[in-house]
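The following block was generated as part of the benchmark described in Methods. Ligand: F0G.
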Amino acid sequence: MIHTIIEPFRIKSVEPIRMSTRGERRRWLDEAKLNVFLLPAERVLLDFLTDSGTGAMSARQWGAIMEGDESYAGSKSFFHLEEVLRDLTGYEYIIPTHQGRAAERILFSVATKKGDLIPNNTHFDTTRANIEYQGAEAVDLVIPEGLQPRALHPFKGNIDLARVEELLKREGHRIPFGMMTLTNNSGGGQPVSLANLRAYRELLTRYGKPLILDVCRYAENSMFVKLREPGMQDRTVKSIAQEMFSLADGCMMSAKKDGMVNIGGFLALNDAAWVEAAKTLLILTEGFPTYGGLAGRDLEALAVGMQEGLDEDYLRYRLRTAEYMGEKLKAAGIAIVEPTGGHAVYLDAKDFLPHLGPEQYPAWSLANALYLEAGIRGVEIGSVMFGKRRDDGTETYHSMELVRLAFPRRMYTQSHFDYAAEAICDLKANADKVRGVRMVKQARYLRHFTAEFEWAAS
Ligand code: F0G
């Protein structure tokens, strides 16, 4: 019996990686104001900033690109995508958008108002920002285990039903609908069980509220259900996904994840009134409803990508990649979010850098150190992303300080992951030398993208 899981693809086209020295990276990081978002990508060796839109498309998708119908109205590629998405989701109306946050903005504009509350396991940063932009409030109600990096639970993305019910009782009149994010990206890429989703649906139904899913990584979530949820082992991932969609009234998707494309997203709904308002807004800001901000070729690549994202050989390899990295790091005593999620490994920066207090942004500092020492770019999910500077100049800090290393789909091979694991273990051995940072410039919304830093005095 051979245990090694191989990449279930061959490589047909390659892109060189420019090697760099620590000295060069030191200079480049200073030029980027100690913010890895501001680094030109050519200066990065392994780019684990995000799994969003960064993956490799298949030969079949590149073939589909040539088939793209660029008609302004009634594009054949739209009808192809619509057919694939209706079959998968069961929702009647498919509204393409250029990416996930456009779908968010449109849905929240038509279905929320000032003072509303939207519960979710954990809102992603753009989701939260788009809700707050409407004057509504994004409420995170993940189960307590979901906030403890090392609590073992097969479905740490589950929502805390008791707290949802309490909110519905107390503030029900302010809640237009409930949301659930599959997988729970901000909480470690952790899955939601079918049982939890079903119970959430029943609870919302009792209070007359619809359910909207954020399904960026629904295929990874469905594979976790197949592997971990009792009684699911013999089902296809697609049928599990279909059941998840059937429990909700609609979904938003950034197709740049499990849609296996470099750009794209959609909103899929059953409610005709929401759809009418959404289409009006779509035409105003994205494009005609049969392309919604995408080219015909993008729609075609997405129609193929949605099917490839459900391939079970691919998904087994995909989840194994994160697990493999996690095993190597844990063996070296490095604290990570456990169990590993679907698309990324999350380093626990509080544990990695115990000498840095929250005001030195430990996860941000760790992301900088990883770049400096090994050319690896990850992303902080901590107090820069989720904390806030109050009007009086004081800061609120996030409960977790994580560095996410997110893995682009079908792009890096095992030796890249071996290199990354070795580099992180090396850094751990010298962790006490990692310096903290001070934020010297920030924007009001989504400040992590553009904030500037200096080294903190050590
Ligand atoms: N929802 C979730 C759960 C996400 O992870 C993202 C994006 C979005 C919505 C927004 O989609 O980027 O297409 O507008 N996540 C990326 C990430 C950016 O790196 O995790 P978008």
